[in-house]
Specification:
Strand order of the largest sheet: 3-2-1-4-5-6-11
Structural class: alpha/beta
Number of domains: 2
Low-confidence stretches: none
CATH architecture of the largest domain: 3-Layer(aba) Sandwich
Bound molecules: nicotinamide-adenine-dinucleotide
CATH class of the largest domain: Alpha Beta
Length: about 425
């Protein structure tokens, strides 16, 4: 088969701009799992199975048996942060994983230290970093590229991927400097203030041939200049904003209402969150970035333009409240006002007492492994088959994003089948006697 992926070489670098709660929880989690101290619950690449052929064939291998992914033992972690210290410090600050578990992997955690971050406080106003690069945007971009090369050389790596886990930046829209590779490069040289740190990391990754995913709502590789660069450099990308708690629930419930032609009059979502992410999102301009990625979901699932009588007046509101006592243990409430037969009103209440970083960590792992696999299959640009993981999937400009979790899952599975030369599953029915 001509497009057969190359087998996974032994090691893969996983580079995380932003080594806070999510970043440190992924790293500590993988180290703990490697040491036999936990299970990779929530990770499709580690625990998921994939059906192959007809149901009668009973072929359901683990995804990792079908697809040549790098094993957890082969992952090497690095990254950047605007606070120094090591990953043991980051984990104890984040207070996600119990100290008793952390202490068993302390030595290894202490060997992982972030490079100084590429930062501009105009984009993240609530943080005062102490471990940062200096210089113009061009100088910061070249320094991040040098870090990537050094990290690969020091660890004997042929391949690496980058997953952005930095704090959410303020909301900005693309402008002329973001439009072409030439204008973007000129903007780096001129230290153009419209180029954000998230874009600098994305640019550095793409230039170094490192697949890039954006776990945050910040504007990054989804500007025309970097989309063009990813194609030119044959680098797969993906984004944006990990789909973890409330939006995950939304993209399961909304398709159900639509499937049953139930109306939705209102959807009020609120959260209390006390980690550093919550503190950053307490700032209105950063919240606006998050609000954008959270709000888009319902309209593209329910399509009010097709069903004005069911969804035309939908009132959708999302709030995030910073509430320090909760730390990373977020609580997300949803009140959903729905209508049924003859317009009779009903209500649904969801109260998800979740753990933000515990939900996000397996997503980071899966994205790193799948993007590396995509790269080995010769894929480039936005990988829409990974929409499953995103609150706001980036798509081609001509199509709307697919948000329904189970459509996204089917798409992901069929892409995997296709990439290894297996027959696609269409779910077209077969006659009962054929099925047995
Ligand atoms: N469930 C989830 O946790 C979840 C879901 C979706 C998206 N996200 C997004 O993931 C990101 C990380 O979340 P978190 O809970 O780990 O937040 P966090 O505040 O604990 O970690 C972010 C880290 O990024 C660092 N940072 C900020 N700007 C930086 C820069 N320019 N360079 C290097 N480091 C920088 C901060 O110092 C901090 O350590 C946030 O943008 C968040 O919105 C999280």
């Amino acid at each position: 088969m001509s497009n057969a992926p190359q087998p996974a070489a032994e090691k893969l670098g996983v580079l995380l701009p932003g080594m806070g709660a999510v970043g440190s929880t992924v790293i500590a989690g993988v180290l703990a799992i490697r040491a036999g101290l936990g299970q990779p619950i929530g990770s499709l690449t580690q625990m998921g199975r994939i059906r192959l052929g007809k149901r009668t064939e009973k072929r359901n291998p683990l995804i990792q048996e079908l697809v040549p992914l790098t094993a957890l033992d082969g992952l090497v972690f690095g990254g950047w942060d605007i606070f120094g210290g090591d990953m043991y410090d980051a984990c104890t600050t984040a207070e996600v994983i119990d100290r008793s578990l952390l202490d068993q992997i302390k030595d290894e955690l202490q060997t992982i230290k972030p490079f100084p971050g590429a930062f501009d406080s105009n984009f993240v106003k609530r943080l005062n970093g102490t471990h940062m690069k200096t210089g113009t945007r061009r100088e910061m971009a070249e320094a991040v590229r040098a870090d990537i090369r050094a990290f690969k050389a020091d660890n004997g790596l042929q391949r690496a991927v980058m997953v952005n886990c930095c704090s959410t930046e303020v909301y900005i829209e693309s402008s002329d400097v973001h439009m072409t590779i030439e204008s973007f490069e000129a903007g780096l040289d001129a230290d153009d203030q419209r180029i954000s740190p998230a874009m600098i990391y994305a640019y550095a990754a793409i230039q170094e041939g490192v697949p890039y995913a954006n776990g945050t709502p910040s504007l990054a590789a989804d500007i025309p200049a970097l989309e063009a660069l990813a194609h030119e450099r044959s680098v797969p990308t993906g984004g944006k904003d990990f789909k973890t708690g409330q939006t995950l629930m939304k993209t399961v419930l909304a398709p159900m209402f639509k499937a049953r032609m139930l109306g939705v009059k209102g959807w009020f979502s609120t959260n209390i969150l006390g980690n550093r992410d919550g503190e950053v999102l307490d700032e209105p301009e950063a919240f606006k970035s998050k609000e954008k990625t959270k709000l888009g979901v319902l309209d593209s699932i329910l399509r009010p333009e097709h069903h004005p009588e069911l969804y035309g007046d939908l009132y959708h509101k999302v709030r995030i409240n910073y509430y320090p006592p909760r730390g990373d243990a977020k609580e997300g409430w949803d009140n959903i006002d729905i209508t049924g037969w003859l317009g009779y009103p009903m209500q649904i209440k969801v109260d998800f007492l979740c753990r933000d970083s515990i939900l996000a960590a397996p997503i980071v792992l899966d994205l790193a492994l799948f993007l590396d696999f995509a790269s080995r299959c010769g894929k480039k640009g936005v990988q829409e088959w990974l929409s499953f993981y995103w609150k706001s999937p980036i798509t081609a400009p001509t199509v709307y994003p697919e948000h329904d979790l189970f459509v996204q899952l089917s798409k992901l599975m069929n892409n995997l089948r296709h990439m290894v030369g297996e027959e696609l599953i269409t779910h077209l029915g077969v006659e009962y006697y054929e099925e047995g």
